[in-house]
Structure formats: C-alpha cells, structure tokens
Amino acid sequence: MSNINGKVYAMNAITPMKPWKTWILRVFFFLLGHIKPMQKDLVDLSFIEFARWVVLPRNGFPFLGKGQSQEDLKYDYLLFFSNFNGTWNQYIDAFSAVLSKGLNLVWRWSEKFPGSVPVTLFKEYIARVQFDTDYYYTAYPHATANDVKSAHIVQSSLDCLSQAAEHYNPQQFADAYLRFVLQVQAHLGETGEAPVAG
Amino acid sequence: MPNKSGNVYGLTILSPIIDDEKATPSHDLQIRSYLAKLSTREDSPFALAPGTHLARLVVMDDVIYVGMPACEEHLKSKYLVFESNCDGDLDNYLSGLAASVPEHLDAIWKHCVGYPGAGNRQAFIDYMKACQIETTFFFAAVNDKSLPETLRALQTQTAVADFIATHQGMEPSALQREFTRFVTHLKSLPIPRPGSMGPHRYIKTGGRNE
C-alpha cells in the first residue's frame, strides 16, 4: 500500500448510488464541465494536481467473457480519484470548508452520505468508502501543483527575456532583468522533500 | 470530451482479475506482490514509457457497503484499476507503454481476464480500450503543458532561483553576458528524467488518515 509518493497523496473512493439519481449527477458534471465559473472553487483549491469522478453504471463494469462472471448489481457507483498535496486531514478539512456546497451536490446522491459539514461525520464517511493504492507513481514527486504552476510562469518569463535580451544594450537589459526578477520572485520557492506528516 | 482536460488525458481502466481457486497465491495477490516491489522512481515503467504525469494501480477487492438502510452487494470479480494522467492521444500513449515496458505490463496484466500480451500492439490497445471506463468529470490543475515541458520548467525554476541569488548587484554588461551564458547552458541541459527528481525516501506507507 502506498497512498503517498513525494508530495502527492492518492485517494480512491467508491460510493453506491441508486440508478435514477445517477442522471442528476451526470447533469451536474456536464454543467460543471461546460460552465467554467462553476469550477472556481476547485481551481482555488490549489493543492489538487489531478482529480476525477467516474460514474460507473451497475451494468458498466467491463465484461470480457472468458470465464468471467457478469456483475449483477443494484447500485450504480461513483468512483473518485484524487491526486493532492498535503495530508488526508488537511485535504478533507479544506474540501469541507471551501467546497461544501459543491461536494454536497456531488455526493448527496450517494447512499448514506451525511453531508460535508460537520466535518467529523464527513471524514468518517470518506474513511469508510476509501480504498488504498497499491502502486503510485508521479513524474515529479518533489513538486506540488503550485510548484508546477510557478515553474511554468518562470519558464515563460525567462523565454521572453532571453529572446529580447539579444536586442538590448546593457542598461536596457538591466532594466528588463529587474522587471523579470519582480515578475518571477514569488514563483521561485524551492522544491524538495515533503515535510513528514505526523 | 470528459476524458480530456486541455491536452491531458484522464485514463481510467478496470481490468477484471482472473478468479481461479486453484491459483496459489491468488492472482490478485500476485499483482499486489509485484506492485509492492516495483520502483516508483526513474526506473518505474511509467518513467521509462513516455507521457505519464501521475498514475496509480489499485486492486479493487469489492464495492463498499455503507451500512443500513443501503443494500449490501458484492462484486463477482476483483478489478485492477489503472488510473493515469497522461499526455495527449490515448492510442499513442498505450502504444508507448507497450513498446517501452512490455515485460512489466505482461507481469501485471497477465493476471487479468482476456489479456492478450503487450507483444501484439493492436490487441493490447483494443484490450485496454475494452476495459476503459469513461471519466465523467476530469480536473487537471495544469492542462496545457506536456510532461517534458513540465520537467523542463521545474529544472528552469531551480536554476533561475540560483542564478538570481548569485548575481545580485552585478554591473549591467557583466550581468547581460552572464545571463546569455546561463540561458545557453540551461538550453543545453538534458530534460530531467521523469521520477528522478524525487527524494530518496523509502518509507512510503502513508496511513490514510495522516
């Protein structure tokens, strides 16, 4: 079991839903996907690198024959996979505090979902429906989502300066360099090993 | 298309694991044993093959019963869940995996029903697609950069921080000369290998409630 690799935590959760409720959830996700302002809170939770929700219909489990028994289920299932920075508790706390309305809209269709506030019952529910990761890989374990965003800002600022630099005289370059430093100074945080959670 | 966010693809695959009472240890346990020994660093199969930002493999034993008044039900198969956040086109990605690390793929997926082997590229891609579940909603914090671009940017970030720190107060013409040299040197560096920039830490259990 390895839910953690470097600075990222892999969360998996599965919750049962009555099939007729699945369609309401699909509509919500459709709107979330097409109306960008609805994603604002999700974007603001800047410690999420990647996350996905997958609605798995009761007859949608892959069936390949060849000796495999076909599933016979009453519920559809909602799968949730998240890659986030920080600890489990910090993540659930932040989710509950910032995204409580959104979370309720996603999980209220799942059986026995207690609501995302108060957080104690919410944590109990997540702990119950979570299952552990057997293998977890990240190409950049030393970097958080914010590190990656910052690194791209630094890269693009550097590319601009280096392209322009060859046309500048020394004084013009010094002025441009100062502007560059001001532009990137908030994005130079050092990456490295994550603090040990305890 | 819900499987994609910008240029990043959210791949979700559930492969049914062979249920054979005579297998000892059971196939799911053999997958878990193999995964437990598999490197997560630059020699990881996902680092050797192109295009994976983050990926996980999970043996899903069963669905979860949340308690009364919900109905209790169980799966008839265990599933190997493969969740990957990767660059671009799915066919190219799967093809890259099959070409780069066929022995790892075979060692893992040979315990799954109907797995044809990575040697037959098209059969492998068809199999993976047959086990694919469409993502309903996919979120990527950075969705317009490829893996090499991100690795390069992280390398640049560290180098720029060092450059700025060591060239403070320098006279303009010398600074310009040094900067040009710095940029040329930076461009000549190879892109860091995926998974190579992480801490060498072997404790990685990470209790779920940390």
Q: Major sheet of chain A: size, sense and barrel closure?
A: 4 strands, antiparallel
Would you list the SSEs of chain B in sequence order as H and E?
EEHHEEHHHEHH
Helix/strand class of chain A: alpha+beta
Number of domains of chain B: 2
How big a fraction of the residues of chain A is strand? 15-25%
* Structural class determined from secondary elements of chain B: alpha+beta
Determine the CATH topology of the largest domain in chain B: Alpha-Beta Plaits
Question: Could you explain the architecture of this structure?
Answer:
Chain A is of the alpha+beta class and 198 residues long. Chain A has 7 helices and 5 strands; from the N terminus they run ββααββαααβαα. Chain A has a 4-stranded antiparallel β-sheet with strand order 1-2-4-3. In chain A, a hairpin with a 2-residue loop joins strand 1 (4-5) and strand 2 (8-17). The two termini of chain A are 18 Å apart. By secondary structure, chain B is an alpha+beta fold. Chain B has 2 domains: 4-63 and 74-130, Alpha-Beta Plaits (2-Layer Sandwich), CATH 3.30.70; 145-210, no CATH class. A 4-stranded antiparallel β-sheet of chain B has the order 1-2-4-3, with helices on one face. In chain B, helix 3 crosses helix 5. The longest helix of chain B is centred in the C-terminal third of the chain and has 20 residues, at 147-166. Chain B is elongated, with a radius of gyration of 22 Å. Chains A and B meet through strand 1, strand 2, helix 1, strand 3 and strand 4 of A and strand 2, helix 1, strand 3, strand 4 and strand 5 of B. Strand 5 of chain A pairs antiparallel with strand 3 of chain B.
